[in-house]
Amino acid sequence: MMYGSFLYNCWAALIGFTIYFIAALQVDFPLPLPILLGSFATAAVVFLLAYPLRYLLGYILYTPEPVPLLPLEEEAVVQEREMLDLPSLDQTSAMEFEDENAEEIAQVVRTMMHREENQSVQNV
Questions:
Q1: What is the CA radius of gyration of the chain?
Q2: Could you tell me which of 55, 52, 46 has the C-alpha nearest to residue 18?
Q3: Which end of the chain has fewer CB atoms surrounding its CB within 10 Å, N or C?
Q4: Contact assessment for residue 28 and residue 42, using Cβ atoms and an 8 Å cutoff
Q5: Tens-digit pLDDT profile for residues 16-55
Q6: DSSP characters for 22-90?
Q7: Phi/psi at 109 (nearest 5 deg)?
Q8: Beta-carbon neighbour count of residue 38 at 10 Å?
Q9: Which pTM does this prediction carry?
């Protein structure tokens, strides 16, 4: 059963009820009991017809999973090659700072903070 199927069918029943009710009020001398009974009967029929209609729409709009063109073993080999070709993020970040020492990095940070302070003082 699809998620929310009862709720969707209740909405469909409410819409069916409303359409019949408004259409039945267009008569010159409407009687309340036949209008209400007809509206509730229409709501029940629409509620029950909504299940097969929604099932048919779900069947028409169903999108299957894509079928891989390569066999599973060859696909695994290709993925492994791709993983080996790409350097991981941890390796690249460690390699960037490997040559520089901590004092040089601290000096760059101090310089950047000093520039930001000067710019904020000049803007005020």
A1: 35
A2: 46
A3: C
A4: no
A5: 999 999 999 998 888 999 999 999 999 999 999 999 998 8
A6: HHHTTSSS--HHHHHHHHHHHHHHHHHHHHHHHHHHHHHS--PPPPPSS-HHHHHHHHHHHHHHSPPHH
A7: -65, -45
A8: 15
A9: 0.49
